[in-house]
Amino acid sequence: MRAPLTAQDRTIPAERLGLLQPTDPAIGIEAIRRRYEEDGYVWLKGLLPRAEVIDFRRWVFSHLAETGLLATGHDFALGIAAAEGVDWSLADRRLMSIVRAAAYEGFCAQPPLVRFMDAFLQGISYLHKRKLMRYTRPGTATATPAHYDLVYLRGGTSRLVTAWIPIGDVPVEMGGLVYLEGSHAIGRGMEAEFRRRSGDLPPEDQISAYNSHMAEGGWISKDLPDMAERFDTRWLATDYEAGDVVLHSPYMIHAATTNRDPAGCLRLSTDIRFQNVDDEIDARWNNHWSLGDML
Ligand SMILES: O=C(O)CCC(=O)C(=O)O
């Protein structure tokens, strides 16, 4: 593992870092499901056509270019960040348009992914309408703190599956997702504890990530080295490539690290949630993502 990896100005020591284990989609759906149950994640190599993922990266950045986010004079697929001069208000509006775009809908519901999810979920897969796309500029402190996803989706089934999809290559330096090894068991324990303590809360607060029993924003921690130490485990990182898809359990603790890409490229990804359509659906996620929707 290429150290150091940092998040929120803290460095993860080499002994608390490990490698995410890849899964070849060709091993078959049963074996993939077993790995997901055991590890809390499966990192599916090359599930999507690489060239189409890169085309989509180009499309996204071409629609963000007007905001000043991208350096001019380069193929937008490279995603080279401009040093300054971003119109943040326009960037927010453009991002909200992009997550409502038919092209994005099509990317998230592309046949290789949907066919895979139907098989994985053993039925008809349902894709939550609220879908997130994130870009991270190099050299900034932005990095998703540690959390597990069920905190935000407590109003439906716990048999949810998140797909984290890098839109372009995301080498470790670019700050992709890191997973706390073996933490789906820890997340399950934390959730059980939350339920035990939340009986006094009004029903809408019991499913909210922002109730008085949760840390600010629903995060577990912003201190990644401390978490690995506390649970005596490691953060698993890797070089993601365009075409990869990671599925993670709603109890699996994950975070992102700082984008320190030496080539100055933006990290781009989407995270979307699938479940079996016959399981209970959290109705709060039936709308497109809006910044500040507090979900
Ligand atoms: O991409 C990120 O920084 C965070 C993604 C995430 O939290 C998720 O996929 O559940």
TrEMBL record:
Database matches in InterPro entries: Phytyl_CoA_dOase-like (IPR008775)
Superkingdom assignment: Bacteria
TM region positions: none
Keywords for the protein's UniProt record, in alphabetical order: Dioxygenase, Oxidoreductase
GO molecular function, one term: dioxygenase activity
UniProt keyword Disulfide bond, yes or no: no
Pfam families, A to Z: PhyH
Protein name (database record): Ectoine hydroxylase-related dioxygenase (Phytanoyl-CoA dioxygenase family)
